[in-house]
Design brief:
The chain is an alpha+beta fold. The protein contains 10 helices and 18 strands.
Length: about 425
């Protein structure tokens, strides 16, 4: 190993030393969540913690993002590239660690002593854990900076939960440049995994996502005289069924695809047929060529189905995140490092899923790996993310901060 053989144990000791503070950071973030592109107090809090650790940073990136850097000082000076005439492993390299900082528009039920103090807003996707773990990792790395060369860049990214997301803005603001990063590493909580475990998958890991909005227009009126109306409710019912043919009959069965509609707004009454109906859904797949072909089919089927019944359909497709691809070489190296740090039994494989993440954009610019962090309570039916009942075992936070630190250092070396 290029880094010190004692470094893993040193990281574990520091992780334990800082564990209480890292948990306290998570609890504060959980109590004061903020929605996408509104994370002003969250960003200020992150900057305060970075100041306490002596880590330099740039705030206001892509609106509310923060970029910090821990500079290795392997030979006693920041940015040094040689010692005793030899190149220091990691010198000149940059590894980026990313955490998202936004919350969801969900009302958290009472129960936790640190539950959300903001009505209708909750960290129901674990971004408070991601951010706390990254702050913990930053403090650990700052404490051992004389033991490594190179740079670890900390990306506190806004607005993962809302298209167009914050990753693109961070990238456009130079998050991966000056100097360019060699790799990007991110994690996401997974309540289906017990606390203590992490999971990796090489190659395709998460789907692309696009938001679909369809307005079906007809002519409303009294429900007792449907023959005098052009009923957008009935047209929408036919349309919802017809659109499912895109996945069941047009998609290659070997290419995963999902078209789901979760919101149908027919704002009439029990005896009133409305003038229009609003349909809102999501389309996800793993193949970019098929992705845009499916968009065309959604538009064509919506137009023809509704027109055949005397109405009109307006279709808006908001192109979202591309699919997440974990670079195989990086993923296998990180998996091996995780085994070194956690033990073989705590590192598992995981299958791809149709979730979506704007972490995908980082992988379009540099080798990237996105892995899962177990936060579930063993033997319990753990609530999923994006649920008001979502909870996480707090033992995951210290583990995550230590693991992020170790993965960054082994990747530098």
């Amino acid at each position: 190993m290029s880094i010190s053989d004692h470094l893993p144990e040193h990281i574990r000791e520091l992780t334990e030393q800082y564990a209480g503070e890292t948990v306290a950071i998570r609890r504060h973030l959980h109590q004061y969540p903020e929605l996408s592109f509104e994370e002003h107090e969250t960003a200020s809090f992150i900057c305060e913690r970075l100041d306490e650790s002596g880590i330099p940073y740039q705030s206001g990136v892509a609106g509310t993002g923060v970029i910090a850097e821990v500079q290795g000082q392997a030979d006693g000076s920041a940015g040094a590239r040689k010692t005793r005439g030899a190149t220091v492993p990691g010198a000149g390299k940059v590894v980026a660690l990313r955490a998202d900082i936004d919350a969801l528009p969900i009302q958290e039920p009472e129960g936790l002593p640190f539950c959300s103090q903001r009505p209708g807003v909750m960290h129901a996707c674990g971004h408070d854990i991601h951010s706390a773990a990254l702050l913990g990792a930053g403090r650990i790395l700052q404490s051992v900076r004389e033991q490594f060369a190179g740079t670890v860049r900390l990306l506190f990214q806004p607005a993962e939960e809302r298209i167009p997301g914050g990753a693109l803005g961070m990238i456009q603001a130079g998050a991966l440049r000056n100097p360019p990063v060699n790799s990007v590493i991110g994690e996401h909580v997974n309540p289906d995994l017990p606390v203590g475990q992490v999971a990796f998958h090489s190659g395709f890991f998460m789907a692309s996502v696009d938001d679909v909005f369809i307005t079906v227009r007809g002519r409303g009126g009294h429900a007792a005289k449907p023959h005098q109306n052009i009923d957008p409710v009935i047209m929408s019912a036919h349309l919802l069924t017809s659109l499912q043919q895109i996945v069941s009959r047009s998609a290659d069965p070997l290419v995963p695809s999902v078209l789901s509609f979760g919101r149908v707004i027919a704002d009439g009454a029990h005896n009133v047929i409305p003038n229009e109906v609003r349909l809102e859904g999501t389309f996800r797949t793993t193949d970019d060529a098929w992705r845009y072909e499916a968009h065309d089919q959604i538009r064509r089927i919506a137009s023809s189905t509704v027109a055949s019944m005397g109405g009109e359909a307006d279709v808006e497709i908001r192109v979202g995140y591309p699919s997440v691809m974990n670079e195989p070489g990086l993923t296998e190296r990180l998996r091996s490092s995780a085994v070194e740090y956690l033990g073989q039994e705590q590192v598992v494989d995981i299958s791809p899923a149709m979730w979506a993440e704007d972490f995908a954009y980082y992988g379009r610019e540099a080798p990237a790996c996105f892995y899962n962090l177990g936060v579930g309570t063993p033997g319990v039916d753990n609530a999923p993310v994006h649920s008001p009942s979502f909870k996480a075992e707090e033992g995951c936070i210290a583990l995550a901060s230590g693991l992020l630190s170790y993965l960054a250092l082994t990747e530098l070396s």
